[in-house]
Structures are given as C-alpha cells and as structure tokens.
Amino acid sequence: MTSRDAESPNLSIAAIALMKGVVYRDTHEQAWQHVHRLRPQLIDHMAVLGLDVIVDEAEGWAYLRARPDDPEQPLPRLIPRHKLSLPQSLLLALLRKALLEFDATDGVGRLVLSRERIVADLRTFLADSPNEARLVDQVDATIGKVVDLGYLRPVKGSSGANAEFEVRRIIKAFIDGQWLHEFDARLQEYAVSLGVIQDQSGAPS
User: Fold this and answer.
1) What is the C-alpha to C-alpha distance for residues 44 and 67, in angstroms, rounded to an integer?
2) Were both Cys, which of 86, 114, 166, 177 would link to 153 (CB 3.0–4.6 Å)?
3) Nearest Cα to 99, choosing from 37, 205, 190, 180?
4) Residue 53: what are its φ and ψ, rounded to 5°?
5) From CA 46, how far away is CA 35, in angstroms rounded?
6) pLDDT for 75
C-alpha cells in the first residue's frame, strides 16, 4: 500500500471488495484498510442496498450479509445463496467442529488439516464405493468447492496427496450452533439409512 492509499481511504474500493466476497486482514491488506477506516460510511452505503456490513476486528475479516426481506418492499437478492450438497454440508460441519475442538484445547494460531485427515473423516459418512479412486475424486471435488466458498485455504507449498488446508475462521460466522444441531439430526437419519450406525431399536438399518 502506498502512503497516498493509506492517507485516502476510498469508499468505492471498500464497497467493491466486499461485494466480491469476504475481505481478510491478512490476505487483502489494502482492501481491509479501506473497509476498516470507512466502516461507518460503508454501513450507511450498503444499507441502501439492503445489506449489513459485518466486521470482526479480533478475527480480522469483513463481509456483507443480506438483511431479512421486507414483505412490503422486497428487494432483489445481491448476495447469492449457495445450495450445498450433502458431502459439502458434511465437510463444513466437520470443519466447524474441528475448529471448536481446536479452540477448546487452547489452540493458538491457525488450524491446519491434512488432506489425508479430511478424506478419512468424510469416508466414514459417505456410501461405500468399490471404486476407491472415484471416492477420493468425490472428496477432492468437495474440498475444492469448500475452498471456492472461502472456508478452506490451501497451504502454500503443499499439494497432491500431501496437501494441507487452513480452516478459515470465517466459518464461525456462517456455521453456528443451530445449523450444526439441525444438520446433526439430518446426518443421523442419513447414517442410519446407510447402516453406518444403528437405529434406536438397536437393529442395523
């Protein structure tokens, strides 16, 4: 960032950066400075579009969230909703729980998971397949989608079977306790249908 950028925060730059997605302090330094310094103006500006500006100073990220629809004056949706597949939802739940466990054990810094661990965790809940390569491809595709959504970030220098991924803490803003509770109930039903766990009668599904 130049000294001129630092002295002259730009509302347009801040707004456009947020419209593109989550702004992180550690990876979007210039945009973060504009968002951070113009937060009051951004809140007023985005309110006109029916959006709230959510900033977490401690974690170092900012994003836009659509306000609840006004039934009398509904607005077109600017922030898209992503329809998740079961494997994608499952991976998000596993990542959120892993982050909870990491923080509960006085975890400091970043939570980094290996591709091997993610594959192993997902394998427990995915239907058995005689084609091992196809199963791994499915898991890799799921990981790729979650990376695209911004909840995982590949660790530089790692790739292939030895790839590692940082769990982005922005996941806490979208995957809350209620989401996990509701998903756990659906997952229980799914696991019973696959025979992964037993139903309440004690007999395999």
Assistant:
1) 13
2) 166
3) 180
4) -95, 115
5) 12
6) 57
User: H-helix or E-strand containing 149?
Assistant: helix 132-149
3-class secondary structure, 36: helix
Q: Which two tokens stand for residue 119?
A: 């594959």
Q: What is the dihedral of CA 38, 41, 45, 48, to 10 degrees?
A: 140
> Backbone phi, then psi, for 108, in 5-degree steps?
-120, 135
How far is it, in rounded angstroms, from Cα 88 to Cα 91? Answer: 5
Those residues with Cβ within 8 angstroms of residue 118's Cβ, 6 or more apart along the chain or in another chain: 91, 94, 139, 143, 165
CB contact at 8 A, 173 and 56 = yes
Question: Both tokens of residue 56?
Answer: 């977490």
Q: Which two tokens stand for residue 4?
A: 């001129």
Q: Which of 56, 73, 15 is nearest to 172 (CA)?
A: 56
Q: Is the per-residue pLDDT at 115 higher than 70?
A: yes
Instruction: Assign 101 to helix, strand or coil.
Output: helix
* C-alpha to C-alpha distance for 183 and 44, rounded to whole angstroms: 35
| Pairwise CA distance, residues 187 & 184, whole Å | 5
